[in-house]
């Protein structure tokens, strides 16, 4: 044991004991990626069940049918978290377990509710505080079939009903929520192109329509929580994704402007409406009819329901440069166009074609966001890397993940600098991921876990070096979850009701056209061309 501890490298320089103890450290997963139990206890299929079960769609032909089997092995996982000193865990709920028929007013599946209640109670009893994402990409297939999922405003009411159900049945033991995970991934990769489920491939207008519906569903959820569930006294946000844009030539004002737009088209696309009630001016000027408009009432709702903390999933940055003169306006300001539709980065490559080691990108992103949104509290709700060769290296050599340790060491150094030098208000940090899991179109070929999952040996769990390093310097310094919350969990009885009433009607959404088709070449279109199925070494199936 002593040898192991001595072998671990020290904490990053900027992460002094004082800085480390000012941040809540944790780790994260999502339902479809770890749970398995794809049709257990009344769960209905999600769009990812459908995609992954279609032959040839996943790089290694795995599915999420079993994944890490957390559905059955959660007690073991929580025991291991406790052993490593983890005090904060971000997980997501599968909509299809809670409301199998998807639509507002339909039956609540209490077996699904109870599974999450048991899991969360066990987390709390182990001193681990949950942060729960409502939607991490696993849309009920029935809602995609009924009305095209996020391309229809119907999704707003159905999501609100689902959110209401979660607040009602889990709100006494969960006080930290995120409505959606990664809107760019949901809307660009799932609806603009056909990289992720539901593989809609309907162009740039579909991305914006999807984002619009996500924003309104989110705002209505915030409103619901602050009225009907105010007594729960929790906090709600939405997890946003983006890459840092490094101007290819920092001395060229056109490249600098392109890099600025790169950030605006990712983060501000979502966060400007959340803070200011409308899309960024540059997007409205350049995207024309492709970008939906908010009614005055919707804009007011957005402004009145500002998020309680700013949740960022951060992985890396890319070079960005000015598009060729004469490019169409939409193309000019499209995210992919501003990087030439390619992943070119100043950072060290990882084994995922979209992911590079660019540690200062985290600090720069936080500075940029803190300035634009006037210094809110930030949570890094995902950060991590897939390790080279981890899909084939044998045990125990595979556990020696020095590449990943170096990634965390340098990124956390920058996070601590953001907090201690730049004065960025960093609240929580979650390493992605707690364990190797179903990495979407890459299956188990890309492993992001700090715990290794042995696919050949009954999914046995083995902590990698990074888990021990994080445990020693970060996880173990946090206090346990608040006692009051734990006490509440023990006192609470499982509700006996089988359905919740329909939530009160929120301001109605404008009807959005999903017909407008973009003609730009986003990252993901390029990605899609070499979609991680061995067609290209340059692009992977993920555009995130
Ligand atoms: C972001 C997503 O939220 C998560 O599901 C995924 O596994 C990681 N990025 C790594 O690609």
UniProtKB/TrEMBL annotation:
Short name of any one Pfam family annotated for the protein: Glyco_hydro_1
Q: Name one GO molecular function term.
A: beta-glucosidase activity
UniProt superkingdom: Eukaryota
Q: What is this protein called?
A: Beta-glucosidase
Protein family per UniProt? Belongs to the glycosyl hydrolase 1 family.
- Biological process GO annotation list? carbohydrate metabolic process
